[in-house]
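Service request form, structural biology core

Requester: graduate student, group of Dr. S.
Request type: structure prediction, single chain
Budget code: on file
Notes: please return the result as structure tokens.

Sequence provided:
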Amino acid sequence: MNPEWQDLDFIDLVSERHLQLREITGKLWNETSNIYISNSEWYILSRIYKKKPTIALVTKSVNISRQATHKFIKKLEAKGLVAISSLENNKKDKCIQLTPLGEECYEKSEFLKAGIEQQIAAKIGTDKLELLREILTSDWGLGDD
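Core staff response, request fulfilled:
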């Protein structure tokens, strides 16, 4: 364990592990791809994978400002990862979906994350990893569960 984490409270420890995992997945992605995708862009991609939501719905579902979300979506579109289209009966709202390249990148990232998960399971045990998953997905009584 990182000695700096020894005295952290639960919330800060979860945050540090999250940052560590995001850093590792980003590094792995960048080593295997020539398309740079930021953590915020991955977050948006995860919200639209296998869906065709409106941009407004995506904006509401991510914890990023509306302006920043629109900026990230424009970057994703410029990289050829998402396509934006108008709704048939609504000129104001626009839909967003992954392009074939976007789906390929997302699925490749999922494969890389599965490899990291296997490494963790090999180190701490599959039973502990499953218990951790169960704990993280259970209702903690915090209101948004």
